[in-house]
Amino acid sequence: MTTRPVTLREVAKLAGVSIATASKALNGQPQVRASTRDRVLRAAEQLNFSPNTLAQGLITQRSGTVGLLTSDLEGRFSIPILMGAEDAFGSDQTSVFLCDARGDNVREKHHLRALLSRRVDGLIVVGARPDARPSLGELPVPVIYAYAPSEDPADLSLVTDNIGGGRLAVDHLIRHGRRRIAHITGDATYGAAQDRATGALARLAEEGLELAGDQVWFGNWSEAWGRGATRMLLQRDPEIDAVFAGSDEIARGVLDVLHQEKLDVPSQVAVIGFDNWNILAANARPPLSTIDMNLEQLGRLAAQRLFAAIGGTLGSGTETVPCRLITRESTAPVG
Amino acid sequence: MTTRPVTLREVAKLAGVSIATASKALNGQPQVRASTRDRVLRAAEQLNFSPNTLAQGLITQRSGTVGLLTSDLEGRFSIPILMGAEDAFGSDQTSVFLCDARGDNVREKHHLRALLSRRVDGLIVVGARPDARPSLGELPVPVIYAYAPSEDPADLSLVTDNIGGGRLAVDHLIRHGRRRIAHITGDATYGAAQDRATGALARLAEEGLELAGDQVWFGNWSEAWGRGATRMLLQRDPEIDAVFAGSDEIARGVLDVLHQEKLDVPSQVAVIGFDNWNILAANARPPLSTIDMNLEQLGRLAAQRLFAAIGGTLGSGTETVPCRLITRESTAPVG
DNA sequence: AGGCGTACCGAAAAGGTTTTCCGGAACGTA
DNA sequence: TACGTTCCGGAAAACCTTTTCGGTACGCCT
Question: Which Gene3D superfamilies match (chains A, B) (predicted)?
Fold first, then answer.
């Protein structure tokens, strides 16, 4: 418990060699005889030696750590990204410092300072909402902005292709023979809401279709809004045969009201959501088709880009990650 | 970008003092004249100096880091705990390494080794489900088990008071005049399911009440089970006036079927959930009363205990954190 | 026998900081 | 003037590892 960790010096002594050779033996350097290497390895094993990473970092000028600076840990977006990143780095070489700024600028600065003090090799910044956020500016380590892009085009950002996602959703509905497609979505001030709508409208236009319900129903990202909007929508246009919801939460509200109105899903009305938030989508009645933003992949990609940037040089601009269609039972071919 | 960080040596040179005095000045040591300290501080400011934490850790034998070893990052339980811990440590002194073992034992060992190599000052282990898990055994740093207790009573574990939670839920229903209370819950192999049922039954017994529906309805933690169980329950006993659901997911299923059966919530049947999983509970129709496990507080507590243990000595045994009632509209006094 | 190349190992510096201990200056006192 | 105090500042060791460079031993060639 209170015993100090064993050092290389002790391993060396037990193996009867110098510290230098012990180090070389353990790191697979060639200038050491096989028999000697064996002795060292056995000694290390016996003492359960594990090298002090701090000391290693001090001399190699590489700490083997990265900072993950998120703004909403409770949010459902940071987590998959975080997992993807953690996954890509692996525990072998790199460990991840997790910092949640809680959307507070001061706290973010604080965390940033702490991370730089710890000499992280790089930084991934995950925004809370998919709109551009202020750049951290010039830093001594490479930075990747994930989910929320940086305002500064000189930074490297990785974001979801929301336009493509909207297009994908509508395309799916069209392929299943739906013609009267409505779109209920969240807060109009979110770029994501705008982009998804843009993609949806573009795909409709290609097919020569109009949006059902006369408009895009912007509101907020809640189930309650999904319910309210659906009621208004049905009043305006009872003939719809599909709804594209801007989030799975909204889709749940849509489903709820459709049930109340005795409209069967999917035979009469198809519903597709967005986010593939499993707990909502998979447990819906019927299980909800939806668009997955591939956030883990985004996280993995961020880690890979960062890894490549460490030592090398970082790109710039915004890279988008495509969405993926998840087909469940809430959408089906007509007839 | 590629410029190496400034060191204490450079600060000292700029201030015209030795490295030793620079260090003392920055750390508030008394043996330095105020004017000298000022010079150093200004120099540090000017160079934007931030001390190399690796070097500090090397000499002080304290890295200022802790490891957070979780088994299900995607799960909803680790996250609040993680937030609480992150919160309690603050960014000032301590940073958190996040490691997700994905429920894999080998990966856990791997991560553990890496963390020890980084000379973390302590460890918090967050289990995936609230049943006892294997101990990590004797380690050179203090370890706290959160959410899932360690099998070894010599370890210190912090868990939710599920019995108290079950009691709390039923107590709330009773106080609101409900008499025919049923309990639908998840997987019977989960200690949490057993404990919540135990607490619920105990409170009923105190009141001289029987459980409605003849049994505790164990199944799994899904919305679908909530629906299925409710149908069976209504067939068995149509006269119930309250349902205590073992999770918010299940509660959502219960609500769904009650709506189908034209039973009004809460006037005819009250429903209370468990977890206070906001997205499910707050957006339900009507918003769901539920039991909150105070997981952030559990996380904060874990951090505090760990903090106290670092340097000092760690306690042992299992400490429980009480639950908290969240009242929304799905429960209301009868009449 | 002398010279040379190869294979192996160790001494020592380096990385950036903290901390102990000591020396010098300034000052007051006898 | 001699001496004791107090106050500041610096030299150097320590933390643990990696890496460079030099040295030894040995076999081989001429």
Answer: 3.40.50.2300, lambda repressor-like DNA-binding domains
Which amino acid, A268?
Q
Peptide bond into B286 cis (omega under 30): yes
| Residue range A230-288, pLDDT digits in tens | 999 999 999 999 999 999 999 999 999 999 999 999 999 999 999 999 999 999 999 99
Assess contact for B205 and B134: CB atoms under 8 A.
no
Minimum distance, in Å, between the CA of residue A7 and any CA atom of chain B = 11
Q: Give me the total of CB pairs closer than 8 Å, taking one residue from chain A and one from chain B.
A: 144
CB-nearest partner of A86 from B79, B86, B100: B100
Q: Which residue has the higher pLDDT, B14 or B129?
A: B14
Q: Do domains B8-51 and B162-292 have the same CATH topology?
A: no
Q: For nucleotide D15, give the residue with the nearest CA to its C1'.
A: B59
**Which 8-state DSSP code applies to residue A133?**
B
- In the CATH scheme, what is the code of domain B63-160+295-322? 3.40.50.2300
Residue range B263-278: average pLDDT? 96
- In this predicted structure, what is the pLDDT of residue B314? 86
Residue of chain B whose alpha carbon sits nearest to that of A97: B97
Return mean pLDDT, chain A: 94
- Residue of chain A minimizing CA distance to B61: A4
Query: Which protein residue's Cα is closest to nucleotide C18 at C1'?
Result: B59
In CATH, the number for domain B162-292 is 3.40.50.2300
Confidence of residue B148 (pLDDT cuts 50, 70, 90): very high
Average pLDDT across chain B, whole number: 94
pLDDT of residue A2: 56
Model pLDDT, residue A3: 72
A287 upstream amide cis, omega within 30 of 0: no
B154 CB and strand C closer than 7 A: no
Q: How many residues can be counted in chain A? A: 335
Q: What fold does the segment set B8-51 form as a domain?
A: 434 Repressor (Amino-terminal Domain) (1.10.260)
Phi, psi of B163, rounded to the nearest 5 degrees: -60, -50
Within 8 A by CB and 6+ apart from B119, the residues are A5, A52, A53, A54, B57, B63, B65
Average pLDDT over residues A125-153: 95
pLDDT for B1: 47
Check residue B2 and give its pLDDT: 56
Q: Where are the domains of chain A?
A: 8-51, 64-160+295-322, 162-292
A63-95 confidence digits (pLDDT tens): 999 999 998 877 788 889 988 998 898 877 899
Calpha distance A183→A192 (Å, rounded):
14
Check whether residue A58 has its CB closer than 7 Å to nucleic acid strand C.
Answer: yes
Interchain proximity B54–A74, CB inside 8 Å: no
Q: Is the CB of A93 under 7 A from strand D?
A: no
Chain A closest-CA separation from residue B117 CA (Å): 5
Helix, strand, coil % over all residues of chain A, rounded to 5: 45, 15, 40
Residue A13 C-alpha, separation from nearest chain B C-alpha, in angstroms: 20
